[in-house]
Amino acid sequence: MKSNRLHTVYCVIPILLFVSCSTNKYAATNKVYKMQAKDYAKTISAFPPIAQSIDSLAADSQSWVGSINFGIRKPNFVILHHTAQKSTDQTIRTFTVKGQSEVSAHYVIGRDGKVVQMVNDYLRAHHAGTGRWGNDTDLNSSSIGIEIDNDGFEPYSENQIQGVIKILAVLKKRYKIPTANFIGHSDIAPSRKPDPHDFPWKRLAQKGYGLWYDEILNPPPVEFDTKLALRIIGYDISNISAAIVAFKRHFVQIDITPVLTPSDKLILFNLYNKYL
Questions:
Q1: Is 146 helix (H, G, I), strand (E, B) or coil?
Q2: Domain identity same for 76 and 201
Q3: What is the domain-level CATH number for residue 110?
């Protein structure tokens, strides 16, 4: 009997060690996250705010009175990406290394559909980079970034798509994000980024996450301004060819040449009216 108990104990110890190691796999980076969050908390709670006085005004010409009516950052966009990497672990390593790419995202969705949250929704992740959507030129500050584990060429798994839909449902309800504000990295950075490549945007739109064009399309008037329409939707038209490609990546997909065909214009006109 004693021998059996010892055998059980020796079998359990490796399991416990495995669980402990897997739990603490990112203990070091979690500690850094906690320390950085504490530093930001100190900055926010400083009374009066640090380094926010107006240098051109004399000290007796400015004062501080704390209002009771304020809140914390509320995201207004969700931006989808593909990781262009080989695994969730590789992406996590990329997002936890200091001093190299310095990129991050709020969520990473693995090929198996499992979700890893990496940044608090209320904090600013470094996922959007230089980009523009409408008049917003700092999407990092106004959005939540979701990275989908995909090398940029493979199809997305059903588990991943279901994972995306479940996250979007929560985020839309939690932050009251407008339907039109679920977009892709290529939408906001058409000159730089192609992701998420070949993503099923129509399927998301059918669930209420992003807009899509109608089945029946009316022809646009002769004077229809395609450049203005792209601008109204949100695209940066400083490079019109890149804007057209980004539009077609999202809404056409079978052809991403920088030229609007007659059928592309039908789609654009329909969407233009939805975004007005």
A1: strand
A2: yes
A3: 3.40.80.10
Contacts of 98 (CB under 8 A, 6+ apart): 32
Is the alpha carbon torsion for 22, 32, 130, 162 positive or negative?
A: positive
Catalytic residue, chosen from 147, 154, 215, 223, is 147
Do 194 and 218 share a domain, yes or no? Answer: no
**Residue of 129, 160, 147, 141 lying closest to 92 (CA atoms):** 147
Conformation bin of residue 99: beta by default, left when phi > 0, alpha when psi is -120 to 50: left
CB 250 within 8 A of CB 184: yes
- Is 27 domain-assigned? no
* Domain boundary pick from 209, 238, 260: 209
Evaluate if residue 20 carries a pLDDT over 60: no
pLDDT, tens digit (0-9, with 9 covering 90-100), for 81-92:
999 999 999 999
Residue 136: CB atoms within 10 Å = 17
Look up the domain containing 245 and give its range. Answer: 213-276
Is 102 assigned a catalytic role? no
Left if phi > 0, otherwise alpha if psi is -120 to 50, otherwise beta: which for 50? beta
pLDDT digits (tens, 9 = 90+) for 52-93: 889 999 989 999 898 999 888 899 999 999 999 999 999 999
pLDDT of residue 9: 41
Q: At 222, which helix (H) or strand (E)?
A: none
| 241 and 153 fall within a common domain | no
| Domain count across the chain | 2
Residues 130, 229: one domain? Answer: no
- Cα–Cα distance list, 227 to 56, 210, 243, 246, 250 (Å): 43, 21, 9, 13, 17
